[in-house]
Amino acid sequence: MHPFTKYSSESIARLGERKLLEKIRLWLGKSSPPAPHGMGDDTAILPIEPNQFNLITTDTLAYKCHFNDTVKPEQAGAKLVKRNLSDIAAMGGTPSSAVISLFLPPTLRLDWLSAFYAGIRDEAIGSNIKIVGGDLCETKDFLGGQLTLWGNARRPVTRTGANSGDFIYVSGTLGGSNCGKHLDFTPRLAEGKWLAEQPGVHSMIDITDGLMKDLPALIPPTCVASLSIKSLPISEAAETLSAEDDQSATQHALSDGEDYELLFTLSNTCDSKLFHKKWSERFEIPITRIGEMMEDLNQNQPRRIINLDTGHELEELGGYEHFRAS
Amino acid sequence: MHPFTKYSSESIARLGERKLLEKIRLWLGKSSPPAPHGMGDDTAILPIEPNQFNLITTDTLAYKCHFNDTVKPEQAGAKLVKRNLSDIAAMGGTPSSAVISLFLPPTLRLDWLSAFYAGIRDEAIGSNIKIVGGDLCETKDFLGGQLTLWGNARRPVTRTGANSGDFIYVSGTLGGSNCGKHLDFTPRLAEGKWLAEQPGVHSMIDITDGLMKDLPALIPPTCVASLSIKSLPISEAAETLSAEDDQSATQHALSDGEDYELLFTLSNTCDSKLFHKKWSERFEIPITRIGEMMEDLNQNQPRRIINLDTGHELEELGGYEHFRAS
Questions:
Q1: Residue B279: which domain range?
Q2: Which residue of chain A comes nearest to B132, CA vs CA?
Q3: Fewer CB atoms < 10 Å away: N or C end of chain A?
Q4: Is A140 within 8 Å of B64 when comparing Cβ atoms?
């Protein structure tokens, strides 16, 4: 059977990425356990014994999709590792080992590949993980790869533990990652691990697609997320970009992808002053309360985000969705 | 940096796959532990506790490399799973969970992808593994993917345990997998697990590149492998192919890839009659003694294979090597 079609009505472009993922779960049927033991969270969680869980995650990287000629091969290699580390961080886990598979054309420069692996090596040594295996596949002209990373956690924090009344927090600053942070980011491993040790932290995710796209995953069925727009920690890069294009810095902070910051919810019964104090004793990056989960009996699907100051619904800016026919 | 070059002297084509793998290990440096805890065996072995090991393996699958339009998408999906299962089988392990990453162009037929996942699902359910995660990446026109599979074993059998004097055995029959077995093969999971329980089984590998290419991995530094050519279990497909081309059935059995049979060595102190009896009580496929590891103080590099009947060295037929410029 020939895999391709020129009719978008017959192709995966008909669906776009989100519906495609739903279909895949359907197609996999009984072989696909529900989250958090299967697809649907930052990593899959495999219970080993009480207070001991394995975490598994996998991410891809492709030329002209995740990096281009302006990116150093070392940076591309490091990014492949860091994208996965950020997923382990978002569960509060400790990463341990990885395998890497690459699709390479014979025309690939040897010095490019050497530098790419140097980026992987340095990131692996820096985060104390071992590269224990891999596979190579020859292609005509496609350059890409994937890394599967596993780790462990005593109490993995999933996306789905938030309660009504929880405060919404974010680490670091948001927006404008295209200016450089999408390559230079530091996975929040120490921060994620510490947060997982705080019983008041109910849910967590790393921001990869942008705050507006990732926050809905944390909203409980009977809640809306109420965001204090003026509290958003806006990055300098978002300000810089805003001066150059027609979007406000706030819009960048709400919508830009690849922040790789931690977004989490904290019980409103926690002493938040003490929480901030403990955080700032340990970490240099800021932490900011940006909103809360508010009871809403409408059971919204999709989940809603409202502006705390105006009460109006915040709508996702028309973003790009993978595979989607335009 | 632009990744590609038109000069093969600057590209990975200069090296070919084997030397490229050596380079990669070098580039990864301290982040790459030695086999069997890293690259270099069928799977990586991660010790958990005495008599308890995790096994990790990863394999790729690409359109126009591992399958083409004559292959049903169900078969392609099943093959991606089975290639990895065969690696776990070759360690004597039990597979448990997997993640899948796919590179897909928007023009991919939805019904092709649905059937591909049905093949994955059926194979996963049949071998009792769970698909716990994955990632999708949009490409211009490349179609490929990878699966990372893990499992466990009480006593993993590596490639490097053979002793001088060990007998060389192979399961099933060899050669001609292009006629269909490269898609229809059954990973030898039950057989591999039983073999790992026999203390006389010293080393094991699954035949993926062909007997002549895979056997050297089992030969100890101070040995040559002495093969009884007339003992080789030749498949019907090898006979059929031989009638159609200019290679003998024996040549096919020696050189064809993708047999996915188990090649292992057994201590010569074992009661081989009893061993054969126990095997045939459990399994329907044959098992054949095809040679032995013979002392040779020359410490050959590369390892040598000789014809037991003539004493002459058997040379690998000029085979295709990935990435290699012609």
A1: 167-307
A2: A38
A3: C
A4: yes
CA angle A31, A37, A41 (to 5 degrees): 110
**CB of B57 closer than 8 Å to CB of A135:** no
A–B: how many Cβ contacts below 8 A?
295
Asked if residue A321 is part of any domain, the answer here is no
Say yes or no for a CB contact (<8 Å) between A21 and B137: no
Asked if A12 and B113 come within 8 Å (Cβ–Cβ), the reply is yes
> CA torsion A173→A176→A177→A178, rounded to 10°?
-170
- Interchain contact, B44 vs A115, CB within 8 Å: no
Strand order in the sheet with B52-62: B44-49, B52-62, B144-153, B94-104, B130-138
pLDDT at B315: 76
**Number of domains observed in the structure of chain A:** 3
If asked whether residues B105 and B127 sit together in one domain, one would say yes
pLDDT exceeds cutoff 60 at A186: yes
pLDDT of residue A18: 87
Say whether B133 and A21 touch across the interface (CB within 8 A). no
Contact A136 B20 (CB under 8 A): yes
Residue of chain B with shortest Cα separation from A325: B106
pLDDT computed for residue B14 by the predictor: 92
Place of tokens 């958003």: A232
For residue B256 the two structure tokens come to 């064809």
User: Which of the listed residues A153, A184, A200 is the one where a domain comes to its end?
Assistant: A153
What ipTM was estimated for this complex? 0.92
Report the CATH number at residue A248.
Answer: 3.90.650.10
For residues B99 and A119, what is the distance between their CA atoms, to the nearest angstrom?
24
| pLDDT higher than threshold 90 for residue B160 | yes
For the stretch B268-309, pLDDT in tens is 999 999 999 999 999 999 999 999 999 987 777 788 999 998
Q: Is the pLDDT of residue A318 over 90?
A: no
Which CATH number does the domain housing residue B141 bear?
3.30.1330.10
Confidence category of residue A294, pLDDT binned at 50, 70, 90: very high
With cut-offs at 50, 70 and 90, classify the pLDDT of residue A316.
Answer: low
Q: Quick one: A1 and A76 in the same domain?
A: no
- Calculate how close chain B gets to A201, using CA atoms only, in Å: 24
Q: How confident is the model at residue B326 (pLDDT cuts 50, 70, 90)?
A: very low
Structure tokens at B99: 């993640």
Average pLDDT over residues B156-176: 97
- Searching chain A, which residue's CA lies closest to the CA of residue B12? A110
Please give the residue of chain B at the shortest CA–CA distance from A71: B1
